[in-house]
Amino acid sequence: MIKRPKICVPVVANNYDKLVEEVNLIIDMKPDLIEWRVDQYLSSHEVEKMTLEALKLELIKPLLYISNTLEHEKIGGILTIRGKSEGGAIDLDDTVRMMLILWSITQCRIQFVDLELDLYDHSKITEKDEILSQLFNEIVNEARTRNIKVILSNHNFSTTPLFADMIAVIKRAQSLRADLVKLAYMPASSEDVLSILAACQYGSTVLNQRMIALSMGELGRISRIIGGEFGSEITFARGIEASAPGQMTIEAMNRSWDTILMDEVPNL
Asked: Is the pTM above the cut of 0.90?
């Protein structure tokens, strides 16, 4: 039997009323997890003109709604405020964004927080790099005190790194206390798809690291179905709208698991 990863569906609404409607529709899909893409929610705002306090005021109501609803429905939640450079919907200063992430995890009951690995700069070249690294550690520390699992993620929407480079990413994330490491890359060939799955398996079995691995786009779609066999613990399905290239519906994923990958192939 194929190993099924947990299915996570992102919420991409950009205002409160749409958020409530979308969450209720996604709950009916019966996912294992719901990811709130806060950057998508803020995409209808002029965030570059808003202070940190104004951003907090804008988010407190939906934060409490998401937290209370998921707890009531017994569905796990991921909080994500994605940066523009890795596919986010807003161009918010990284320092402000990390302060917002830190504040957000103190305001709600959530199971996971997603943090881009590259927000931590080992070289600490500038004062801003130093501040970002300090905030990075504060978020990880705060998450751990609240029993929130930290997903350290690395995305590339144009290419797939070499296998050795992906292993280096996993090891770097481990050094920064990742609970799960998420690799999400765009393939140029079927070999790229196999490479990310191999990196996931290496991370899971050799490095003993909990993993999420996704090869994006149409070419990488198969990774969302068979990733569990290579140690990927979570896959992402499309909700009202896709949040990344290649996302499928939960129905399509379940059909794949229940037929072709379960040897229930129709007679030829």
From this structure: yes
